[in-house]
Amino acid sequence: MIRKLKILLEMIKFEHTVFALPFALMGAFLAAGGLPALPVFGWIILAMVGARTSAMGFNRIVDRKFDQANPRTVDRALPAGAVRLGEAWLMVGLAAGLFFFACANLNRLTLLISPLALGLTFFYSLTKRFTWLCHLVLGCALAFSPFGGWLAVRGDFNGFPWALSVGVLFWVAGFDTVYGCLDADFDRAAGLFSLPARFGREWAFRLAVAFHLLAFGLFVVAGRQAGLHLVYYLGVTVTAVALFYQHLIVNPRDLSRIKMSFFTLNGLISLTLFIATGLDLYLYR
Fold first, then answer.
1. Sequence ranges of the domains in the chain
2. What letter does residue 251 receive in the DSSP assignment?
3. Mean pLDDT of 244-248
4. What is the mean pLDDT of residues 90-99?
5. SS3 of 142, please?
6. How far apart are CA 174 and CA 35, in angstroms?
7. Residue 108: alpha-carbon gap to chain centroid
8. Which residues, in sequence order, are CB contacts of 27 under 8 Å at separation 6+?
9. CA 220, CA 112: separation in Å to the nearest integer?
10. Chain centroid to CA 234
11. Least confident among 1-15, 32-46, 66-80, 177-191
12. DSSP 155
């Protein structure tokens, strides 16, 4: 059972929860003006874990035939036979149940909006079949993270710094476009859609840079909308350096360090912005 659980967690890349969870907590901290009530804090974490686990499990299920045909992904748990299809569906269902249960324990509006949030993450998994805008759809799905954290605390939309969610959208679209370069040739041959497959790696990287410049600008605007101070902007400065560095170490002709760019640096960005926000609220309010 423990071995099977490890395989399932590896299948969905559970550690990548670090991309969205800090932004959900960031939204909660902004809504509360500091640390939210501990029960709310706990339910937000459970909701995010449930949503991402369910969405990634669904992604692996619907993409299993493509994963089996792609040399880069043929060793994933489902195509390799390490996890049965029924087991994967069970995980998706249980995780979705955890997500809805956590939302129900937050407030009515959070519960009402939860099917839309989870449905959008499921929809993303299908978009590579018909549009090269799939990276932006993924960005929209993760943009719900800070918004959801805010709703969990406040129970309404009033005062939410919308630039934060739009910044998350373009940040995600940028790094997902770069990551999509790994499969550009396969996607093109398989009839799948992505920016790298449609426009080539060179133009995909240019678009990723544009997305990240937009994200940086929006994170600055979000700080002004939320009334944050110096510590937050120091965090945004670290974010800018991390964004620049990930484009420095990976390019269309050399993708060898893409795992560092994709996971390490983007995990650093989300954690940095969350910590900077928390410290700013603690020091200035």
1. 2-284
2. B
3. 93
4. 95
5. helix
6. 30
7. 24
8. 145, 146, 147, 148, 149, 150, 151, 152, 153, 160, 164
9. 30
10. 23
11. 1-15
12. S
- Kindly give, in sequence order, each residue whose CB lies less than 8 Å from that of residue 1, ignoring residues fewer than 6 positions away: none
Q: How confident is the model at residue 257 (pLDDT cuts 50, 70, 90)?
A: confident
Q: H-helix or E-strand containing 137?
A: helix 134-154
Q: Rounded CA gap, 13 and 17, in Å?
A: 8
225: nearest Cα among 114, 150, 171: 150
Q: At what angle do helices 134-154 and 38-62 cross, to 10 degrees?
A: 160
Look up residue 229 and give its amino acid.
H
Cβ neighbours of residue 47 under 8 Å, at least 6 residues apart?
24, 98, 99, 102, 103, 106, 114, 148, 152
pLDDT in tens, 39-66: 999 999 999 999 999 999 999 999 999 9
Q: What are the tens digits of pLDDT across the range 145-172?
A: 999 999 999 999 999 999 999 999 999 9
Q: Which CATH class is domain 2-284?
A: mainly alpha
